Backbone:
């Protein structure tokens, strides 16, 4: 399949006229037609004739001197506004919303000539970790259709795994890129806060939200990141730090890199097969000269309470504009999960409770920042699980709200701190379900994470495995 290839292989093939952008787009469209009815990854599909004519136009223009993403089909999580293209955040509240403007990340990809195939299913507003909290029916995991794809960027992850597109832009507030990446056997990067502009990304929790790439490999993520990263005058929190040419430095040797394994993360609650797969991955990395050591992140047990106080507080403020008074939609269009979050957040911010909850959580957040700083002075990269379990059965998490929150234990502490994290495939359970691990680095150390991920993927073919789907 053409879509099994890496972005740089495809760009080379386009240039050498081995196959065309039209061929690749046709293949993706065929896969969407065959597999999407079972997976439900898409909320909006761009009209076939439009995408095919875009591909033909790229083929006519030629590929010499163009970006590696020129003519490559991709998808956006439906949390990015796209002018004139329906944008829902997977909520009935926005089911008729046609934005007046484009998100910066979409503008940048349009400029490089990547071809948008659709807007993807997700947990509404980013609220969830299983893509079941959607008003457009759950996303099914391509590796086992009775299970969830993870969330909240479940649609994008499932679409890449099923070769319906080459890459996607997800959004990660507390794991939403990493969690579905791990459960669908793809690679996903949660960037440092401010690395990529959030302009036009429908806000969940503004001080946690990050915009990042999802693809098959660390190499593909590097190519995408160097296109979408950078300062944006429309997002005051976007960083002015220079954007490295991530893809040029991937092959930097990683010997002498020290990987820290937080002891708290490998104890009770972690599935045995996941633990084993990560330990095996560390042994592999050691063969490349990586040193590993045990570190400690004792604050981690407060990760869930801190995240689930600040996140809902910010979302209650961000979603207040949809209270039904301003735009006429009824607030009963929110799902139970989202209403719960709005209520928790409003409560935590209200007079009398602010000091006890919100302010305390913000103080704990400062302690988290210090703790990660300390840990990342003892090692270059922290390695940890993404999910405590393999993908759950459809219905399991959505019907158990507390378990639903606890499942985020490994991914929610990085966003309050702001540090980047790369999720990569590292094996399968005996029953054939994907396992992922994440590499966390210092602020703006995406380059290092991608190098370690790339080196690991040179020695393994986990990330090239794909699900066996039948139409
Ligand atoms: N599962 C987490 C939550 O529900 C993370 C979501 C996200 O990153 N958007 O808040």
Residues:
């Amino acid at each position: 399949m053409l879509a099994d290839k890496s972005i740089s292989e495809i760009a080379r093939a386009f240039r050498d006229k081995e196959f065309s952008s039209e061929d690749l787009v046709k293949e993706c469209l065929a896969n969407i037609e065959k597999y999407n009815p079972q997976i439900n990854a898409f909320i909006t599909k761009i009209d076939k004739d439009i995408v095919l004519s875009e591909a033909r136009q790229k083929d006519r223009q030629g590929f010499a001197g163009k970006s590696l993403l020129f003519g490559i089909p991709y998808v956006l999580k439906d949390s990015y506004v796209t002018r004139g293209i329906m944008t829902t955040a997977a909520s009935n509240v926005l089911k008729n919303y046609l934005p007046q403007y484009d998100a910066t990340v979409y503008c940048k990809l349009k400029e490089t000539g990547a071809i948008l195939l659709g807007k993807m299913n997700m947990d509404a507003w980013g609220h969830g970790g299983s893509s079941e909290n959607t008003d457009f029916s759950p996303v099914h995991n391509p590796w086992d259709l009775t299970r969830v794809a993870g969330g909240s960027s479940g649609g994008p992850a499932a679409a890449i795994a099923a070769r319906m597109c080459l890459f996607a832009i997800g959004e990660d507030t507390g794991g939403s890129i990493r969690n579905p990446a791990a459960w669908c056997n793809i690679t996903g990067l949660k960037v440092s806060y401010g690395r990529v502009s959030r302009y036009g990304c429908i806000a969940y929790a503004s001080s946690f939200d990050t915009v990042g790439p999802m693809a098959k490999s660390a190499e593909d993520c590097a190519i995408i990141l160097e296109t979408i990263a950078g300062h944006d005058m429309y997002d005051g929190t976007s960083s002015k730090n220079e954007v490295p040419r991530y893809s040029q430095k991937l092959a930097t040797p990683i010997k002498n890199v020290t990987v820290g394994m937080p002891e708290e993360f490998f104890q009770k609650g972690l599935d045995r097969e996941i633990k084993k797969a990560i330990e095996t991955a560390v042994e592999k990395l050691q063969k490349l000269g990586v040193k590993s050591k045990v570190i400690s992140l004792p604050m981690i047990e407060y990760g869930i309470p801190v995240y689930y106080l600040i996140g809902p507080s910010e979302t209650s403020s961000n979603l207040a504009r949809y209270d039904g008074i301003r735009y006429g939609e009824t607030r009963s269009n929110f799902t139970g999960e989202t209403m719960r979050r709005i209520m928790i957040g409003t409560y935590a911010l209200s007079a009398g409770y602010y000091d006890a909850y919100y302010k305390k959580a913000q103080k704990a957040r400062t302690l988290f920042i210090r703790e990660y700083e300390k840990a990342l002075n003892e090692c270059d990269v922290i390695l940890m699980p993404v999910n405590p379990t393999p993908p759950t059965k459809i219905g399991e998490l959505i019907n158990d709200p507390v378990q639903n929150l606890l499942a985020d234990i490994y991914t929610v502490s990085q966003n309050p701190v702001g540090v980047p994290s790369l999720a990569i495939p590292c094996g399968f359970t005996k029953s054939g379900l994907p396992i992922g691990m994440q590499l966390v680095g210092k602020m703006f150390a995406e380059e290092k994470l991608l190098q370690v991920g790339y080196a690991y993927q040179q020695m393994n073919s986990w990330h090239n495995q794909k699900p066996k789907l039948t139409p």
